[in-house]
């Protein structure tokens, strides 16, 4: 079967659009299939201060739209469709969308993922105004302030340790009476002076006036509810990659992340993955861009070198 495209990129966030810029400039016929508007998670991010080249920071939507425009200018094609499956037929890969099927010699999966949400009042209202899901991205906005981290896994403690070096104090709020994080991380956290713990506690509501200034907590052992002052709520209660449509084709880890090698290639030759959907992604704009470029160059080599 002849393929319509050299490369189909599923997902139009930073990783996907960066890959598209490279494949199109390498004269590979490239299609980006995106569910909604291209740009991805950065469209929902306000200030980005850690992306190199922008000493005064840059707004997420500005850089998202600029990368999209750059991909368009190189000649990348776009389709808007919900991808529900991926099939491999010999050398041809078939992306199954709700609208139609698309064929290509190579596929780059850049569908990202979503942070699990607490689902409490105030979480959406104060998103970007005290509520965040990324200490590496936003920690610096809370320099010298009192903050909380919600969750007890590796991500909560690892990112909490990063945050503890920036903020005045950090309180870890965890629903059980023991942490899930690996022992070495736990020990490091227990030894850190400005880190304290509220175990068997749940956040019931995030409150503030324009921006977060406190959370309503429940002590799950006594049922007592009380307010705890904080200017930042860092939520780490898991992350789910958008990879359900790959389950029958590509090897995923237990958390649903796509397993790749260092060239971003999956277990299926010619199928690559980049960005937050990939196992061990650092989930940063810079690393997603880098992943996308590596995947694009690998796709180029796959097509030209066989
Ligand atoms: P995780 O290990 O699944 O931990 C999620 C944490 O959130 C758990 O402590 C869980 O509580 C809590 N939680 C879940 N739903 C909640 C809710 N509705 N309300 C309150 N708390 C809730 O997820 P993760 O920390 O994101 O890690 C994901 C994977 O990445 C893991 O395999 C981890 O090892 C890996 N990772 C590793 C590192 C590292 O090694 N440095 C860093 C980051 C991530 P319970 O404990 O009660 O279930």
Explain how this protein is built.
There is one protein chain. It contains 6 helices and 19 strands. It is of the alpha/beta class. The protein has 2 domains: 177 residues, FAD/NAD(P)-binding domain, CATH 3.50.50; 119 residues, FAD/NAD(P)-binding domain (3-Layer(bba) Sandwich). The longest helix has 21 residues. Bound molecules: NADP nicotinamide-adenine-dinucleotide phosphate (NAP). The site of NADP nicotinamide-adenine-dinucleotide phosphate has 17 residues, from helix 4.
- The second-level CATH architecture of the largest domain is 3-Layer(bba) Sandwich
The assigned structural class equals alpha/beta
CATH class of the largest domain: Alpha Beta
- How large, in whole angstroms, is the Cα Rg? 21 Å
Could you state the order of secondary-structure elements as H and E? EHEEEHEEEEEEHEHEHEEEEEEEH
Count of discrete alpha- or pi-helical segments spanning 4 or more residues: 6
Main sheet, how many strands, which sense, barrel?
7 strands, mixed
Low-confidence runs (pLDDT<50, min 5 residues)? none
- Give the N-terminus to C-terminus distance in angstroms: 17 Å
How many separate domains? 2
CATH topology of the largest domain: FAD/NAD(P)-binding domain
Strand content: 25-35%
Count of extended strands: 19
Summary?
With 306 residues, the protein is of the alpha/beta class.
Produce the secondary structure layout.
Elements: E1 5-10, H1 14-25, E2 30-34, E3 47-48, E4 58-59, H2 60-74, E5 77-80, E6 83-89, E7 92-97, E8 101-109, E9 113-115, E10 131-132, H3 135-138, E11 146-150, H4 154-164, E12 169-173, H5 183-191, E13 195-198, E14 201-209, E15 211-219, E16 225-229, E17 232-235, E18 239-241, E19 271-273, H6 285-305
Bound molecules: NADP nicotinamide-adenine-dinucleotide phosphate (NAP).
């Amino acid at each position: 079967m002849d393929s319509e495209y050299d490369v189909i990129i599923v997902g139009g966030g930073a990783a996907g659009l960066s890959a598209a810029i490279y494949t199109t400039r390498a004269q590979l016929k490239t299609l980006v299939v995106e569910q909604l508007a291209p740009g991805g998670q950065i469209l929902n991010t306000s200030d980005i201060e850690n992306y190199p080249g922008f000493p005064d920071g840059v707004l997420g939507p500005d850089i998202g739209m600029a990368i999209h425009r750059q991909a368009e200018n190189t000649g990348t094609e776009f389709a808007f469709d919900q991808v529900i499956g991926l099939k491999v037929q010999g050398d041809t890969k078939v992306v199954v969308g709700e609208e139609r099927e698309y064929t290509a010699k190579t596929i780059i999966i850049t569908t990202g993922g979503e942070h699990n949400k607490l689902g409490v009042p105030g979480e959406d209202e104060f998103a970007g105004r005290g509520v965040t899901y990324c200490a590496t991205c936003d920690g610096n906005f809370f320099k010298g302030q009192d903050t909380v981290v919600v969750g007890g896994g590796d991500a909560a403690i690892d990112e909490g340790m990063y945050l503890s070096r920036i903020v005045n104090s950090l309180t870890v709020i965890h629903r059980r009476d023991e942490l899930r994080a690996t022992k070495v991380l736990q020990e490091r956290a227990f030894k850190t002076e400005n880190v304290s713990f509220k175990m068997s506690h749940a956040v019931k509501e995030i409150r503030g006036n324009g921006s977060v200034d406190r959370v309503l907590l429940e002590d799950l052992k006594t049922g007592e509810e009380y307010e705890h002052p904080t200017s930042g709520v860092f939520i780490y209660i898991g992350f789910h990659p958008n990879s359900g449509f790959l389950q029958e084709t590509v090897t995923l880890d237990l958390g649903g992340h796509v397993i790749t090698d260092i060239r971003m290639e999956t277990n299926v030759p010619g199928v690559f993955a980049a960005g937050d959907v990939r196992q061990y992604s650092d989930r940063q704009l810079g690393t997603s861009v880098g992943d996308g470029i590596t995947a694009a160059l690998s796709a180029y080599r796959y097509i030209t070198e066989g």
